Amino acid sequence: MHGDPAVMEHLRGVRDAAANDAYLARNLQHWNDYGFGLWILRELGGGPPVGRAVLRHLLVEDVDEVEVGYAFYQEYWGKGFATEIAAACLALGRDTLHLTTIVAVTSLTNSASQHVLRKVGLEYERDFINDGKLCALFRTVR
Questions:
Q1: Per-residue pLDDT for 62 more than 80?
Q2: Which residue, among 61, 64, 38, 41, has the nearest Cα to 51 in the 3D structure?
Q3: For the structural domain made of 5-140, what CATH number should be given?
Q4: In angstroms, rounded to a whole number, what is the distance separating the alpha carbons of residues 137 and 124?
Q5: How many Å apart are CA 103 and CA 122, to the nearest integer?
Q6: What Å distances lie between residue 117 and 15, 101, 102, 132, CA to CA?
Q7: Which H, E and C letters describe the chain, residue by residue?
Q8: Among 15, 68, 73, 95, which residue is least crowded by beta carbons within 10 Å?
Q9: Which is it for the CA torsion 52, 57, 60, 65, positive or negative?
Q10: For 20-38, how does the pLDDT look when each residue is reduced to its tens digit (9 = 90+)?
Q11: Radius of gyration, alpha carbons of the chain
Q12: What pLDDT score was predicted for residue 24?
């Protein structure tokens, strides 16, 4: 997934093996530290992975937030999976983790993702710099 230019267009670009290893290590450590994090997604009934979802801590301008995110292989775009998993992650954050707010970060040009975020109850808050790139910050409505 991280080597696919179409998938990674809005996710900081294609990753090489070293960046992929670092990403996996960070996400496994997040599970160890918090008991939640990155999930690999499959369709009901099994089969190959269709994408990934995250609910994880993220520093936003030095403030510890919890972020919801997702990515899917291209052949699974437009099938409602992003909406389904984003809603499920938000419910987990609210109902199980008792979070009072959850954020999402997307590129300014990713209108499809912004549409999903609005559908599941997040609102655009502001633009901000994330890892040196201007991004849009969305937040759950309080």
A1: yes
A2: 41
A3: 3.40.630.30
A4: 6
A5: 8
A6: 25, 14, 11, 22
A7: CCCCHHHHCCCCCCCCHHHHHHHHHHHHHHHHHHCCCEEEEECCCCCCEEEEEEEEEEEECCEEEEEEEEEECHHHCCCCHHHHHHHHHHHHHHHHCCCCCCEEEEECCCHHHHHHHHHCCEEEEEEEEECCEEEEEEEECC
A8: 95
A9: positive
A10: 678 788 878 999 999 999 8
A11: 14
A12: 83
Looking at the DSSP bridge assignments, the partners of residue 69 are 54
Which residues, other chains included, contact 4 with Cβ-Cβ below 8 Å and sequence gap of 6+?
14, 73, 74
Q: What is the length of the chain?
A: 142
| Two structure tokens written together for 22 | 């670092």
Please give the pLDDT value at position 88.
95
Q: What confidence tier does 9 reach under pLDDT thresholds 50, 70, 90?
A: low
Task: Pick the closest to residue 51 from 94, 115, 93, 113 (CA basis).
Answer: 113
